[in-house]
Design goal:
The complex is a heterodimer. Chain A has one domain: P-loop containing nucleotide triphosphate hydrolases (Rossmann fold, 3-Layer(aba) Sandwich). Helices cover 37% and strands 28% of the residues of chain A. Chain A has 10 helices and 10 strands. In chain A, the strands form 2 sheets. A 6-stranded mixed beta sheet of chain A has the order 6-7-8-3-9-10, sandwiched between helices. Chain A has a 4-stranded antiparallel beta sheet with strand order 2-1-4-5, covered by helices on one side. In chain A, a hairpin with a 2-residue loop joins strand 4 and strand 5. Chain A is globular, with a radius of gyration of 19 Å. By secondary structure, chain B is mostly helical. Chain B starts with a helix and ends in a 7-residue tail after the last helix. Chain B has one domain. Classes of the chains: A alpha/beta, B mainly alpha. The interface between A and B is medium-sized, with 37 and 33 residues.
Chain lengths: 272, 277
């Protein structure tokens, strides 16, 4: 059984234009994912590279049951994300680009209530929260401080702790290091590596960071405007596209540099 | 059997989690709570002073009775407001803080999610409304020699079920319309205010509004509370106000959960389960 099995997955959104036709705003279709197919083995770490609007976040949100697909299918350890969403939710957790917490509440309070949603009673979280915070390198004596007083890097460590507290077998990481300072970025990456090797976790990492993808992942996928155009180990990708670096391979695969973001991509970024 | 027990246990822990989270928020926003409390107290005073105003302008009324009628109306209205606001903000606040995706991807049934918020709203609302009631009654030196507070408590308990059910239906609005949903929730709350006889008997309303009053649980709650506090009515004497609330509660809670589930599916289809702000 595959840890993740995605077949011909499609998702589109509609946006209203500012211009009006017969007094009504026109609706325009924006395809976020177009026929994405791939599988992941248990214990594998796969990185998905893509620009803003490439569909990375849509993929993560589909796999975490926050979106319904318009076509195709996705299954986590054999459980369909639409028909067996509750079973999928028990297996998955995620870390996204924004830490997303109740800012006035402390890290301990945020972790405590979130753990209850996964069936962890107070007796279990009393010791588990300080332990997990210590593991992610968060100063445990600051666990009673409001989240608003913590740096972005600290908040992201708490986000990692929240995801790991519920022992997920599939960890979805959606740009977990974007916006972090170099030191925090390195610490988070080290922790991801530690979790991957010490836990029996399968990791899907969506990122902008080519080095991060190359260093952390078994295989690297290139998602371009909703289409998964490659998925192979970084070395194979470089060989396949006759490129010296992963960035060159990305350019060869998409016909654009990583920074070459068009208006269309920026617009897609609002949704995908 | 063991699996069902495990699922049930998880749901109870999740329900506790919702109550716990709301408690943390109230605690962390304590100054907001104090400010809102004084605002509610001032608002209630303004309304209750109308009775004094009627007397001062030559109107012939039983001043104690009118003051108590208005006080019950104002306090019940503030209680209903707390229950509705907490339920509507279940979604709106989470969207603002960005936690909405984490809550909706957790293995928690929507019934547990909403009932947890509802239970907290009832407990918190009763405490706050009781303090306002006692404080304003003391301010005016009101005597309620016949009051049957046990009946009043039974009435509020029964009414709360239907308030939560209707609140669940309004909580769906911010889910399907992030920009306008919360405001439309307040419109629904306002409509209930107009038709339920909060400060006047529903008999003064036009016929179509009186029909709407019949399906509002607040109508029965207010009438029953006034009977219990002014006339000392027993539970059996206000049964005529209790049974319609039981029926509305039995219908509105499952209907509220169903409506919210439909709204959640709509939000998942259109990509609206995400942060804004």
């Amino acid at each position: 059984m595959f840890a993740v099995e995605v077949h011909n997955l499609r998702k589109e959104f509609f946006r209203r234009d500012a211009t009006r036709t017969r007094g009504r705003k026109r609706r325009r279709r924006v395809a976020a994912l177009e026929g994405v197919t791939f599988t992941m083995e248990r214990g594998e770490c796969v990185a998905i590279l893509g620009q803003n609007g490439s569909g990375k976040s849509t993929l993560v949100r589909l796999l975490s049951t926050l979106l319904l697909p318009d076509g195709g299918s996705a299954a986590i350890f054999g459980h369909d994300v639409v028909k067996e969403s509750r079973a999928v939710q028990r297996l998955v957790n995620r870390v996204s680009v924004e830490a997303s917490f109740f800012k006035k509440m402390s890290s301990e309070e945020n972790l405590a209530y979130a753990a209850r949603f996964y069936g962890m009673p107070p007796s279990a979280t009393k010791s588990a929260i300080p332990e997990i915070l210590e593991r992610v390198g968060f100063p445990v004596d600051r666990r009673h401080e409001g989240m608003e007083h913590l740096s972005r890097g600290m908040q992201q460590k708490v986000a990692l702790a929240r995801a790991l507290l519920t022992s997920p077998v599939l960890l979805l990481l959606d740009e977990p290091t974007t916006g972090l300072d170099p030191r925090s970025k390195l610490e988070v990456q080290q922790f991801i590596r530690e979790v991957w090797t010490s836990h029996d976790a399968t990791i899907l990492l969506c990122t902008h960071d080519l080095t991060e993808a190359e260093v952390l992942a078994d295989r690297v996928g290139i998602l371009d405007r909703g289409r998964l155009i490659a998925l192979d180990p970084a070395d194979v990708l470089k060989e396949q596209y006759e490129a010296e670096t992963l960035e060159d391979a990305f350019f060869a695969a998409t016909g654009r540099t990583f920074e070459d973001e068009k208006d269309e991509d920026a617009e897609r970024g609002v949704f995908a | 059997m063991r699996e069902a027990a495990g699922t049930m246990r998880s749901e109870f822990i999740g329900l506790y989690g919702m109550v716990e989270r709301n408690w943390y928020l109230i605690k962390r926003y304590a100054w907001w709570e104090i400010a809102f409390f004084f605002w509610t107290a001032a608002n209630t005073l303004t309304i209750v002073f109308i009775a004094k105003g009627v007397e001062a302008t030559g109107g012939k009324v039983d001043i104690d009775q009118l003051t108590t009628i208005l006080l019950i109306g104002a306090v019940m209205w503030s209680y209903l407001g707390i229950v509705f606001e907490l339920l509507i903000e279940t979604v709106a606040w989470e969207r603002w803080e960005g936690t909405i995706e984490y809550t909706f991807m957790a293995p928690l049934t929507r019934a547990t999610h909403l009932l947890g918020t509802g239970i907290f709203a009832i407990g918190y609302g009763i405490v706050r409304a009781s303090i306002v009631f006692v404080a304003i009654a003391a301010f005016f030196g009101l005597h309620m020699p016949n009051a049957n507070f046990a009946t009043a408590l039974v009435l509020i308990a029964v009414a709360s079920v239907s308030f939560v059910g209707i609140g669940m239906m309004t909580a769906v609005l911010p889910l399907i319309s992030p920009e306008k949903g919360t405001q439309f929730g307040y419109v629904a709350q306002g409509l209930m205010l107009v038709v339920s006889g909060v400060y006047y008997p529903v008999t003064v309303l036009p016929a179509f509004m009186q029909w709407l009053a019949k399906i509002s649980p607040a109508t029965y709650a207010l009438r029953g509370e006034r009977s219990a506090i002014l006339d000392g009515a027993t539970v059996s004497q206000v049964w005529g106000d209790i049974w319609p609330m039981v029926i509305i509660g039995v219908i509105s809670v499952p209907l509220g959960i169903w409506v919210f589930r439909r709204g959640e599916l709509h939000a998942k289809r259109h990509g609206k389960l995400k942060r804004s702000g």
